[in-house]
Amino acid sequence: MSFIIFISPSKTFAATNIEGTSQPLFLEKTLKLHEKLQSLTQEDLAKLMSLSPKLAEITHQYYQIPTMARAIDLYSGVSYKAMDSQTFTVGNHKLYILDAYYGLIRPHDYIRAYRLDFTMRFMGNLYDYWQRDIAKYLHKVHHNDILVDLCSHEFSPLLAEQVNVIRIDFVLKDKKISNVLLKQMRGKMARYLVDHNINDVFSLKSVALEGFTYCLDQSNEKTFIFIR
Questions:
Q1: CA distance 145 to 150
Q2: Which residues does residue 69 pair with via DSSP β-bridges, in sequence order?
Q3: pLDDT per residue over 18-47, tens digit each?
Q4: Is 34 a member of any domain?
Q5: Domain total in the chain
Q6: What secondary structure letter does DSSP report for 76?
Q7: Scanning 48, 112, 193, 210, which has the fewest C-beta atoms within 10 Å of its C-beta?
Q8: Strand spans (E) along the chain
Q9: What's this model's pTM, rounded to 2 decimal places?
Q10: Residue 51 falls within a domain, yes or no?
């Protein structure tokens, strides 16, 4: 039994061309989404994704001219910077990125820059589009493991069919935690669990990270709250 970690993607990307060593798991389904997205104009994308003209132009280019790199190096959002992802050594079956465009991404998958959220009504319900494939894969490969959910809430529904999930959340005692700090802590916790080979509940509860410690009173068997 091992801890298998799940994180969110980011909407920002690094200028890197490090090639991945594996192909995404559900590339055929991604290509169906891509064909549709590639056919949209900048105006279509702006309306679909509620984008400014500049972001619509950038997003349109994503689908016309591929910018490809290894996933763990390509993402450059707050969580990935906190994780120091470009120095992060992690195996393809230890950490996954839940995603609306690729479904499930491994760290060494060779992916392109893109933009697509589950909140967008595109080709039907994207949760339905990915749910069965992800559930089938996780049951086959990780049915004896504990899945550690460090994603934002948008992505957690993709793990809803799994019984062996522990969600980790972070709170502050005296005020609401900011989105930036929350993203940073998710990235730092993912890195810590891998680097320190944390693979059991007792060890997880003992983690003290950036002043955050496990809170028994606010936690349950499915949700672990770390408080500062």
A1: 16
A2: 111
A3: 999 999 999 999 999 999 999 999 999 999
A4: no
A5: 1
A6: -
A7: 210
A8: 3-7, 68-70, 95-99, 103-105, 110-112, 146-149, 165-171, 208-209, 212-214, 223-227
A9: 0.93
A10: no
